[in-house]
Structure to design on (234 residues):
């Protein structure tokens, strides 16, 4: 049984989420305080955490920072409707995906299923996985089985979503990968209109891996289309 931790100060919303998730086979724990959310997230083996931005104790951003310092458990962040800043900040800190309030509970269930499907089923069902356990290009080496990334000898700490975006780009280095393809590969869902989540994950990869390879941009933007991972290696 998949375990879900919901962290939201809206008691009625937590009850509604539980009502929708339990018939889907999920075991749901909820808390309404940011500090307690962090403690429970780090003390238990949850499959996914649903985390609101506005919380008592500490806000969702600080809670996410503390969780990400010690855990790679997937996090779906709930943000205020129409607040791009919240979504961008959450993705930059390490959220795997976001859902603006007020949402349809069925969409929340679908998002959770999508995140768990891609984190649970890889590498076997990942269309971007290489046939071997290791995918290497220049200074970057991805261990597909362990889902780890090294730049040279340094281990790079990526979220699950960032790893999937990078795998999609590196496995098709030198070719354009559309934002729609990246969304399907990394988020297991179609790209929604005005959705900037893929752009933010790519921005995070550039920051963590280094923007350039021997003076050449590592991940190039193809305006209006998607991205290309450079084939320059030395």
């Amino acid at each position: 049984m998949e375990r879900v931790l919901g962290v939201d100060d809206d008691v009625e919303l937590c009850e509604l989420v539980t009502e929708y998730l339990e018939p889907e086979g999920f075991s749901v724990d909820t808390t309404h305080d940011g500090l307690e959310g962090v403690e429970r997230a780090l003390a238990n083996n949850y499959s996914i955490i649903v985390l609101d931005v506005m919380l008592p104790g500490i806000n969702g951003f600080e809670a996410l920072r503390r969780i990400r310092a010690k855990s790679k458990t997937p996090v779906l962040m709930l943000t205020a409707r129409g607040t791009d800043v919240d979504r961008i900040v959450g993705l930059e800190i390490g959220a795997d995906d976001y859902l603006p309030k007020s949402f349809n509970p069925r969409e929340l269930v679908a998002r959770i299923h999508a995140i768990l499907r891609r984190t649970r089923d890889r590498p076997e069902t990942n269309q971007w996985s290489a046939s071997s356990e290791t995918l290497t290009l220049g200074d970057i080496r991805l261990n597909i089985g362990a889902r780890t990334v090294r730049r040279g000898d340094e281990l790079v700490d990526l979220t699950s979503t960032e790893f999937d975006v990078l795998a999609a780009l590196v496995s098709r280095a030198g070719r354009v990968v559309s934002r729609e393809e990246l969304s399907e590969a990394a988020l297991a869902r179609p790209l929604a209109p005005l959705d900037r989540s893929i752009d933010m994950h790519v921005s995070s990869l550039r920051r963590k891996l280094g923007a350039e390879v021997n003076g050449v941009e590592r991940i190039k933007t193809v305006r209006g289309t998607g991205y290309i991972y450079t084939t320059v290696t030395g």
